[in-house]
Design a protein that fits this description.
single chain; 189 residues; mainly alpha; 0% strand
């Protein structure tokens, strides 16, 4: 097993565990009292975490798992933001989008990063026009959506670049290890 697979295996367990922590946070918010629909918040949170977990069980580090867990994180954070509708903490919970995007970078793959960023962008844009209170507290305007989009693009770009650099370094390391082992075997013969 190469270093990248080992890293992704450890990351996968943490990423899936965090999805279930998000479900616990949704239940805690429900018990604390919320204006949001409990059916959407709790049912959605459970369905999202369960779907990503099933994908992980089938293929712990595969691309489908990486993308499904990234989408699940974006969706569960969206539910948390919705669960805090009407609360002064809603805008603070909103920062969890940016933290979760960074967590997706632990896959060291551009695909989950872009999946997360894409779903988050669609979520913000659609809900800004349909249900603004589910995204931002109080009155807001389109400039806030644009600002969040710019920040999201900058962070995603930086994480993709970082992931590419790490993947290249890991591949070079694995190749050097193979060459060293071959040289040692040849020297032993």
């Amino acid at each position: 097993m190469n270093f990248m697979t080992q890293l992704r295996t450890r990351a996968a367990a943490a990423i899936v565990s965090l999805l279930w922590i998000n479900v616990a946070l949704l239940f805690a918010r429900h018990l604390w009292g919320m204006e949001a629909s409990p059916t959407i918040v709790l049912g959605g949170g459970l369905a999202i975490a369960a779907a990503a977990t099933v994908t992980w069980w089938r293929d712990p580090v595969g691309t489908a798992t990486q993308i499904s867990t990234a989408l699940a994180h974006a969706a569960s954070v969206a539910l948390l933001v919705y669960a805090f509708s009407g609360s002064p903490l809603q805008i603070d919970i909103h920062m969890y989008f940016f933290a979760s995007l960074a967590i997706c970078a632990s896959w060291v793959n551009w695909q989950p990063i872009l999946a997360f960023a894409g779903l988050t962008a669609v979520h913000h844009l659609a809900l800004f026009f349909l249900i603004p209170a589910a995204v931002f507290p109080g009155e807001t305007d389109f400039s806030r959506v644009v600002l969040h989009a710019v920040i999201l693009i900058l962070e995603a770009g930086a994480l993709v670049a970082l992931g590419h650099s790490l993947a290249t370094a890991f591949a070079q390391n694995d190749e050097a290890m193979r060459e060293t082992e071959a040289a040692n075997q040849q020297a032993g013969e």
